[in-house]
Every structure is written in C-alpha cells, then in structure tokens.
Automatic annotation (TrEMBL):
Motif (Q motif): 30-60
Biased composition (Basic and acidic residues): 343-376
Location (main, coarse): nucleus
Name of protein: RNA helicase
Catalytic activity: ATP + H2O = ADP + phosphate + H(+)
Gene3D superfamilies registered for this protein in UniProt: P-loop containing nucleotide triphosphate hydrolases (3.40.50.300)
Domain DEAD-box RNA helicase Q residues, every copy: 30-60
This protein's UniProt keywords: ATP-binding, Helicase, Hydrolase, Nucleotide-binding, Nucleus, Ribosome biogenesis, RNA-binding
C-alpha cells in the first residue's frame, strides 16, 4: 500500500480503516483503575513515579482498544508513555488467561525492539510493573548476544513475555530455543526505526512462524519508513491511532545554532562546561567513535568529567552508563548516533570523501603538510566490530536531560528531531545547541575536520525548514567570540595534546576497563563496596598529555558576565602542595644567600670516586 493510502487510512480493498484521531483527549479525572486492570497490576502502577498518577493520552487511547483484542497501529512520540500503553494490556491478558484456567506454561507474548538498550529498558519496566504478580508474569530479555546454551537455559522455563530484537528472535528460532506456536500477542515497538535498521527480512521470518489470530500492536513515532510493510506482514485492517503529540515537547525546547570553525567547536564546548553555562545533565552527539574519544580526552585536560556511549562498548557497559546517567551519577554523555534515521534526504547528497591515512574506521588524520593526497594511495580501512543493534537517539529513556548538544550535525532533519527529543520531557523545558560548519571553514583545521561537515549548511537548511513548518524557531547562538580569546591559548594547548596515538590508546584502554566490569565481578563488589568507584565510566583515560594547570581558570581570563555564572569560589586560585611549598621556601632562601634557585651543583665524579672496588 502506498504512503498516501496509509495517511488516508484505507485498507487494500479501499475501505476506510477504523481510526482514532488525535482529538480524543483523555479525561482529566481518568485513572488506571478505570480500565478494569487486575489489582496486582494496579499495585505495580502505584509504586511508580508520581508521573504515573494518571494515564497519558496514548495510554488512555491504546489500552482500551488493546483490552478489546483489536490490532493497533499507533503513532505517538518518544516519551509519551508508549511502553506502558502496550505492556499493561499484555499483562492483563496473561493474568486473565492464567486465572481462567491453570494452563501449562507457555510463551504467549513477544515484544520486538530495534536495539539492545531499548530491550533492557522495556524489560525493566515490565519487571517493575509485575512486582505484585509474583511468578504469574515472567519476562526474559534475549536481546543480548549470548552462547546458545545460555540462551536455551533461559528460554527453557517458557517465560510469559520475551523481549528481543528481530535478529535475536530469528537466531533463537533457528536454534530451536524458542517456539512461537503458543504466542497470542506480538508488539513491535519503534517500528519505523526497526525498518530503518534494515531488519525487514527478520520481521518477515518472524511473521511466517506466528500462528493465526495473533493480536498485533505496532508502535511508531511516524507512519513512514516502511511501517506500511510491517503492517501488511503482521495484521490486516488495524485500528490506526494518530496522536499529534509526537512533537509536543519541541515547543519546550529552546533551539540554537552556532556557526563556527571546526576547532572552535572544542573551544565553545570547553567554555560552556568549564564556566558551568550548561546546567544539569547533557547529551553530546558526535559523528563517530573516534570523535567521542577526542572530545573526552580534550575535556579531561580541564578536569571536565564525561562518559562515552557507543556501539563498540560491551552491552552491559552501555546499559550501565544509561542507568547511572539516569540516576544522576554522570552529567555528561558523549554519544555516537551511528544509525541515523536515513530517509530520502540523503539520496541527493554527494558522497563525502574519506581521509587518506586509513587509521581507524574513517576520517582520522590528514596528509602530511606539503604533500598531496594523490601521493598516498588509499589503504583499506580497519573494520571495528560494532553492534548493529545499538541506538541512542531513539527509544532509550534518558531522564531529566537539560541540554542536547549536536557537536556534529546529523545527516538528516529527521535524526535531528529525534536527538532533540531526548530533552524537554515530562513537562520540563530543555535546550538544544547545534554546531554547523560554514562552507568557507570546511577543512580549515586539519587535525579535527571530518568529511560530514562539508554538507552542514545544506543539512541545517533542511532542519530549519522542517522546524519552521512545525512552528518552531532555531535561533542563532549569540556568543561573543572575542570574549573567548583569553581561553584560546589553553584550548589550543589541550587540543594539541590529543593526538591520533592518544585516541587509539584511549579506545584500547577503555575497552579493557569495560571488559573487566563484568557480571563475574558482581560478587566481589558486593563484598568490597569500596571498589565500586572503579565502575565509574567517567574516569580519566589519561591517554593524552596531562597538564594540571588547565584544571583551574584564572580570574583574569573570565569575562565579567561569566564570573557570576560560576558557583565554586575557589576557581582562579591554584594552591601549592607540600612539595611546591618546600621548593618555594628553598628558592626564597637561596635568593637571600645569593645562590641560584632551583639549581643543585653536581658532584665531581673524580673527587667522589672511592678507593675500594667491587668484590
């Protein structure tokens, strides 16, 4: 079916599908008890965050339809409560079946998600809501890559709900660890993202293994990017729920753009974080893994803590980073968005050039000054083992994010929308700042340029048109660059310290550290809680040259307006440690007696030569 027909809500026979418009608002006094949910489920809801005091719009619309057994295709934005909208009806159906007849154990519900991180998040929500259900609702997350024997053991007990990515379901079916013969409910969350991750073949394989009469719920932020294909695979004539709240948080996001040179990105980021101009928690999106480490090592020079989130890290580490960030332990996440939501926008873009040094995956380094690129034949780039089912911009519930910084612009306007959707949630406001490189500044700074910035102006125009069409404005980030001139010497010194070798060593060191933070050490940390500090993901990598003097900002560097923004009173004062005090007093004494300070006369080796030799 064409997208045009989908928007008109017509089925294959040109008959209008049953639809629920966005005009159906949930009553002000509605509560979860009005849905007739089991008392055990209501008990689990009561133990949630106060935001669960009443159902959201998508919950009040989808839950009654799902309880009636209808197939549903729902469009609702990130952070609107989609997870509970399909989890609660699943739980109700499972409890109802077990109450009516003490049936044998079986896996009756499958939830498909695009990434491992989202699978873990959904599993955690189900486990929390099912706290009062005991063993009547059991859930297993098989999204992680495991040995077949381990996965077979976890599925042998036939959990009621299985959460996984489509590829992991297919893998379990092929190994006979999982059977879909008794499945009665299928949920596909973030359907458009799953199709953008090119998992359509896996979905097709799953649909052919499902029995007849399965209730299907498709949840998506848009009704594009192959959603109609998924619908045709799993359900016919679904009830279409379109809620115009997919972008409702955007009116609470203050959007800014800073047009600057490539190296000035680092300067502005340094000033924003060091002077505490960025308040609260912040997600910084960068183009690739090496940019993560370059920026982290750069910020470390100024004692600015940050942690990294990318597809190269082990799954457990990524989940732990998100969990600790939500708890407020970390304030800055440097994240790659390697699986941009790619639509038709990128088809017209010219291909970006690759940097010729061949180190890493892409664009690290530059030709030696004075030499032509043609003098260096292109080498085969090294392939790094990445997780194809990793995703940050969509699905994952980052809590209380105050700032989103697009250090590198995404390649599409759709990805931009999903990135800034990480902030301004749960009724709160947020700020989105994007850096864009003008054409005349492209490739001016050899050590930091990346090919994707060549098209920043084109991408920014598309983003601006999209946001303007929705009634939102992207304002210029008014920053007086002349006031940053006093910081340039320090910033350049720190940036020079982050070499390609330092980045490579930092990546290796980080991977080694994360591999040590495994489940096998869980018992050790329970017995030695003081060692838990080593689990921090924002610890210094110390791969770059350490310059302790950069930690402090002298008072004379600060513009008058910035001094008020600082919260700590000791910034600008560099205290002496014991050794420095001893050396200082010694130098004063040397000057008093006419001796050269800090100079110790070498002993004459001939005069100090002993008469006794070795025996």
């Amino acid at each position: 079916m064409s997208k045009r027909n989908l928007k008109r809500k017509l089925n294959e026979s040109n008959v209008p599908e049953e639809a629920v418009s966005s005009g159906s608002k949930n009553p002000a006094n509605q509560s979860f008890s009005d849905f007739g949910l089991d008392a055990r489920i209501l008990k689990g809801i009561q133990g949630q965050h106060p935001a669960w005091s009443k159902p959201t719009q998508v919950q009040s619309t989808v839950i009654p339809l799902a309880l009636e057994g209808k197939n549903i295709l729902a469009r609702s934005g990130t952070g609107t409560g989609k997870t509970a909208a399909y989890v609660l009806p699943l739980m109700q159906a499972i409890l109802k079946r077990k109450t009516a007849s003490r049936a044998t154990k079986c896996t009756s519900a499958v939830i498909l998600v695009p990434s491992f991180e989202l699978a873990s998040q959904v599993t955690k929500v189900i486990s929390t809501l099912a706290a009062g259900c005991g063993a009547d609702i059991r859930v297993e997350n098989i999204g992680r890559k495991e040995v077949d024997k381990v996965q077979r053991v976890r599925l042998a007990d036939l959990p009621d709900i299985v959460v996984a990515t489509p590829s992991r379901i297919i893998s379990s079916l092929e190994s006979s660890a999982l059977s879909l013969s008794d499945v009665s409910h299928v949920v596909i969350d973030e359907t458009d993202t799953i199709m953008a991750y090119e998992q359509g073949e896996y979905l097709k394989g799953i649909s052919t293994n499902l029995p007849q009469g399965v209730q299907t719920i498709l949840m998506s932020a848009t009704l594009e990017t192959g959603v109609d294909q998924v619908r045709d695979m799993f359900c016919q004539n679904p009830t279409v729920v379109e809620l115009d709240n997919s972008e409702e948080s955007a009116d609470r996001v203050f959007q800014y753009v800073a047009k600057c040179a490539e190296d000035e990105k680092f300067l502005i980021a340094y000033v924003l974080f060091k002077l505490n101009l960025v308040k609260g928690k912040c997600i910084v999106f960068v183009a690739d893994i090496d940019r993560c480490y370059r920026l982290k090592l750069f910020l470390e020079q100024f004692q600015i803590k940050s942690c990294i989130l990318n597809s190269e890290l082990p799954v457990n580490s990524r989940l732990h980073v998100v969990d600790e960030f939500n708890k407020g332990i970390y304030n800055i996440i440097l994240a790659t968005d390697e699986h941009d939501i790619v639509g038709d926008e990128t088809k017209k873009q010219p291909k970006t050039e690759e940097r010729p040094d061949g180190e890493g995956e892409t664009h690290i380094g530059e030709p030696i000054s004075g030499e032509k690129e043609s003098d260096h034949p292109k080498k085969k780039t090294k392939t790094t083992k990445r997780d194809k089912e990793y995703g940050v911009a969509r699905g994952i519930d980052f809590k209380d994010v105050g700032w989103v910084i697009n250090f590198d612009l995404p390649i599409t306007s759709k990805s931009y929308t999903h990135r800034i959707g990480r902030t301004a949630r749960a009724g709160k406001a947020g700020t989105a700042l994007s850096f864009a490189i003008p054409k005349d500044q492209y490739r001016k700074h050899k050590s930091t340029w990346i090919p994707s910035t060549e098209h920043d102006e084109e991408v920014l125009d598309k983003i601006t048109r999209q946001q303007t069409k929705k009634g939102f404005e992207i304002k210029p980030f008014n920053l007086n660059m002349s006031q940053l001139d006093p910081f340039r010497y320090r910033f350049q010194s720190a940036l020079r310290a982050v070499t390609r070798t330092a980045i490579r060593e930092a990546r290796t060191r980080e991977l080694k550290q994360e591999l040590l933070k495994s489940e096998k050490l869980k018992r050790h940390f329970e017995e030695n809680p003081e060692d838990m500090q080593h689990l921090r993901h924002d610890s210094d990598l110390k791969a770059a040259r350490v310059q302790p003097h950069l930690k402090h900002v002298p008072d004379y560097l600060l513009p008058p307006a910035a001094r008020k923004a600082l919260t700590s009173g000791d910034i600008g004062f560099v205290g002496f440690n014991k050794d420095e005090k001893r050396l200082r007093s010694s130098n004063i004494g040397n000057k008093r007696f006419g001796r050269r300070s800090g100079f110790k006369k070498k002993a004459d080796p001939l005069k100090s030569f002993g008469g006794k030799g070795r025996r």
